[in-house]
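Exercise 7. Given the encoded structure of a 275-residue chain, write a plausible sequence.
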């Protein structure tokens, strides 16, 4: 049953405005989604339906958030799974799970009176890399094949439209079968945030936090080059924890600075000196 899948989320109110930076990715994604929203019009033009969108980029840059926002934008239920889940949890029954996932997506969309479903497959490279090149990895093949079969079966005039969104930070590893026309034929690149985007992300994660007057998020954005959105979320969280530890009712600039150092120490960041 559907509840056996982890990562099912009932959160529908997550929007593009809750995602900092990523303006080009949001723009490209919305354009692709507008295509999905006007499926009947595009059928009339004889254009094939959009079945899959691939989000590529470094970890923690907001790919999952973009997929959730896409669900809200298209009035779809959001169902999440990941490549490694198929290997670790559903070993041996991957193909069956894919069938169940599509079936459950349709059922849930109907039950919740939504227009469609977005099936998010994180780490899709795990399923779709080097197919058949490793002996003993037949299970990956079956799972991927079934995913492609289900995607091929999606039609413009289906009652519930299903869109698969895959995410990967290893787009060099992808099976070419995934990128064939009619499959993941839109690729949206999600990059590390530049300074302005970092500031935007910091502001989003400080919305509900008591900041002292000496805080300059602009300075923190300046000092955090190379950080992903996930790192910046950690900075905001860590700064609040440091303040609490000092029994300070407000979060000060030195808490943020310490938090930046802490997050930086915890990661071997691939920092580009230019931004
Ligand atoms: P992974 O490749 O590791 O799965 P991802 O790209 O899917 O990562 P998300 O799961 O979307 O990344 O982001 C992780 C967390 O980082 C989010 O829950 C959010 O708190 C924060 N975050 C990442 N990017 C952004 C962003 N652009 N704006 C606001 N928050 C962000």
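Solution.
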């Amino acid at each position: 049953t559907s509840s056996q899948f982890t990562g099912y989320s009932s959160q529908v109110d997550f929007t593009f405005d809750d995602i900092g930076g990523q303006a080009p990715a949001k723009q490209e994604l919305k354009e692709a989604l507008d295509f999905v929203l006007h499926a009947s019009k595009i059928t009339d033009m004889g254009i094939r339906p959009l079945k899959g969108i691939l989000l590529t980029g470094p970890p923690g840059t907001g790919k999952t958030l973009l997929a959730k926002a896409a669900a809200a934008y298209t009035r779809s239920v959001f169902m999440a799974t990941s490549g490694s889940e198929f290997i670790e949890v559903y070993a041996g029954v991957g193909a069956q799970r894919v069938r169940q996932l599509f079936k459950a997506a349709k059922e849930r969309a109907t039950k919740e009176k939504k227009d469609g479903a977005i099936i998010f497959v994180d780490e899709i490279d795990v399923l779709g890399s080097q197919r058949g090149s490793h002996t003993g990895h037949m299970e990956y093949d079956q799972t991927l094949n079934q995913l492609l079969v289900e995607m091929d079966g999606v039609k413009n005039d289906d009652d519930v439209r299903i869109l698969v969104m895959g995410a990967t930070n290893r787009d060099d590893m992808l099976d070419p079968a995934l990128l064939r026309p009619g499959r993941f034929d839109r690729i949206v690149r999600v990059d590390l945030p530049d300074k302005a985007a970092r500031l935007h992300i910091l502001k989003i994660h400080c919305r509900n936090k008591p900041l002292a007057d000496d805080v300059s998020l602009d300075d923190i954005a300046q000092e955090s080059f190379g950080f992903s959105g996930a790192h910046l979320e950690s900075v905001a969280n860590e700064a609040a924890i440091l303040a609490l530890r000092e029994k300070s009712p407000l979060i000060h600039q030195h808490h943020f600075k310490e938090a930046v150092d802490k997050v930086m120490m915890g990661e071997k960041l691939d920092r580009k000196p230019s931004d």
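Remark. The first helix runs from residue 23 to 37. Students should compare their own answers with the one above.
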